[in-house]
Structures are given as structure tokens and as C-alpha cells.
Amino acid sequence: MKIISTLAVLLTFTFCQAQKSELILRLEKDVEYIQSTNSESTIIQEINGQKMNIVMTINGTMSYLVKAINDDSFDMDVAYKSLSMSMQLPQGKMEFSSEKKDEGDIFSLILSEMKNKEFQVKMTKYGKITEIRNIEKLFESAFSILPEIPEAQLSQIKTQLLKAYGKEAYKGNIEMITAIYPNKKVAKGDEWVINTKLESGMSANMTTTYKFLDSTKEHYLIVGESKIETADKDAYIESNGMPMKFDLTGFMTSNIKIDKTSGWIVVAKIDQDIQGDTYIKENPQMPNGMKIPMIMKSKMVFTNN
User: Fold this and answer.
1) Cα(first)–Cα(last) distance of the chain, in Å?
2) Cβ-based neighbour number of residue 243 at 10 Å
3) Are the beta carbons of 176 and 199 closer than 8 angstroms?
4) Yes or no: is domain 20-303 CATH 1.10.3470?
5) By CB neighbour count within 10 A (0-12 exposed, 13-18 middle, 19+ buried), where does 90 fall?
6) How far is CA 210 from CA 16, 159, 222, in A?
7) Measuring CA to CA, which residue among 276, 264, 260, 273 is closest to residue 299?
8) How far apart are CA 96 and CA 110, in angstroms?
């Protein structure tokens, strides 16, 4: 009986070991991978005792063309294929799109100029970005179409575009969805932790615990729970010509389906909830400064088409 029991234990151990999977990117050279994004955010701000609601929708499609495969990373040419944004403000709705052809709509023209401008990215097999080159090309022609406006205003527009779409913002926004893979083989039920730096107007740290939920014939299914917190609550940044700082915390849940062959994300559904305060420092425009309580709830869907 001891021999049979020992054999059963060994067989169970071997079976469990065989069920471990390596969740990594296995991209192919000269193949283009698509990532499309749909994001809807509701932002509630309280200014001078009055609540103001803003609903912002952002859509975009990016292509990743694999140019070279290294030992543990991929060299890719990346380009935006389309970009659009709409904002529902108390005063009305504003819409901008790279597909819109209107000489009077400067921001849509800028988005259009950002299309199909390739820049280079090196991404590890775990989804981390280690190098970004030539992303400035996105803005060179975009800035050239801006009308003659005062230098201070032009500088402000450039700063805001770079914060939204520049190197650090791109890295954080993309790693939020690509830097999800464990650095070891995992079995169903296993968990691992990923730390991500977010940069988009402000700096924030995100710590995510992912769990290997299930494996189907074609896909891996994982879920994630994230904690988000302002990186430096005392750091002021320049926004709309005024110094501002943020004290925000929140959480995020992720449900992700991964293609078994390539490791590329087929679909990811993300819910994000962030709350806290924004502070405007005393300045000539606002001598007494201001504290603005804020709630931001976002739903994001990423797909591979």
C-alpha cells in the first residue's frame, strides 16, 4: 500500500508540474499586431462647492510590426492608425478625430498628422518596454501645421501633447496592458505581482496582483487587481499655465484573454476608480490657490483588431 500511495503522490506531482504554462510574448518577425483601445471616463470635480461632470471618450488603434527578434525582446515599428477623443462638458460636447477633415479644427488636424508616423519600441517577452526611439516624429509635422500663435501658448500646447502622447506617457499607458506576464511558469490559481509607473500629466505608481484564472484550447485567462497612488504628492506640475499637484489613490480590476500561440492580448476589460484632491498653487491667475476634490471612473476595452 505504501508503494501505491507513493506512486499516486508522484503521479499527482508530475501532473501538476505538467500543467504549468509559460505566459510570455511569442511574436513572429514581419507580422503586424494590432491593439485597439476604447476608453470612457467620467470625471466629477467640485469647484467652489459646485460639482462639474465631464465625460471623456478616447479611441485609438495602434500597429506593432515586429522587425527583429532578440533573445528576450522584440524590436518593433509602432504607429497610430487612428485617434479620436470626445468630451461632454457642462457647456456642450467637443469632438476631435484623426479622420476629420476640417481646416478650422486644429486639434483634429494635429491628431491626423500623428497618424502613420513610425517610431521604434523594444519590448521584452514579458511586455516591458525597455527602449523608445523617434517618438518625437509624431509631433514634428503636427507642430508645423499650428497657426501663428504667441510663443507661450505654442509652448503650452507642445507641453500638453508631450505629456499626453510623449515617451513616458506612452510607456506607462502601454505597460498598463502589456506588462502583465509572470517571469516564471505558472499553474491555474498562481499569482504574481507587477509594478508599473504611470505618466500622463501626473506620475503614479501602480501595483498589480495577477492571477492565472484558466486555460482554454486557444486562450489563457488572467485577472488582475491593482492599487494606484500618486507617486509624489508634493510635486507640482505645470498644467494650463498653472502649477498643480495631485493627491489621488484608487484601484483597478482587469480581465484579460491572451492568445496561446503569440501571447498577444486578444481582449482586456479594465475598470478603474480613482479619487482624491487636485491642488492649484497660488499664482497670478489664482492668488488664493484652490483645492479641487475629484472622482474619476473609467472603463477601458483593449482588443487585437
Assistant:
1) 56
2) 16
3) no
4) no
5) exposed
6) 20, 34, 7
7) 273
8) 10
Instruction: Quote the CA–CA distance of 9 and 22 in Å, as a whole number.
Output: 24
Distances (CA, A) of 55 to 13, 52, 199: 52, 10, 21
- Cβ neighbours, 10 Å, residue 257: 19
Phi-psi map region of 185: left, alpha, beta (phi>0 left; psi -120 to 50 alpha): beta
Task: Per residue of the chain (305 residues), give pLDDT as tens.
Answer: 444 455 555 545 444 444 789 999 999 999 999 999 999 999 999 888 788 899 999 999 999 999 999 999 999 999 999 999 999 988 899 999 999 888 778 888 888 988 999 999 999 999 999 999 998 888 777 777 776 667 776 676 777 677 777 788 888 888 989 999 999 999 999 999 999 988 766 788 999 999 999 999 999 999 999 999 998 888 888 776 788 889 999 999 999 999 999 999 999 999 999 999 999 888 888 888 889 999 999 999 999 99
Residue holding cell 497610430? 80
Question: Residue written as cell 491593439?
Answer: 35
266 Cβ neighbours under 8 A, 6+ residues apart: 219, 257, 258, 259, 303, 304
pTM (predicted TM-score): 0.86
Host H or E run for residue 40: strand 32-47
* Cα-only R_g, the chain: 22
How far apart are the C-alpha atoms of 179 and 197, rounded to whole Å?
A: 11
Looking at this protein, which amino acid is placed at residue 29? K
d(CA 166, CA 155) in angstroms, rounded, equals: 15
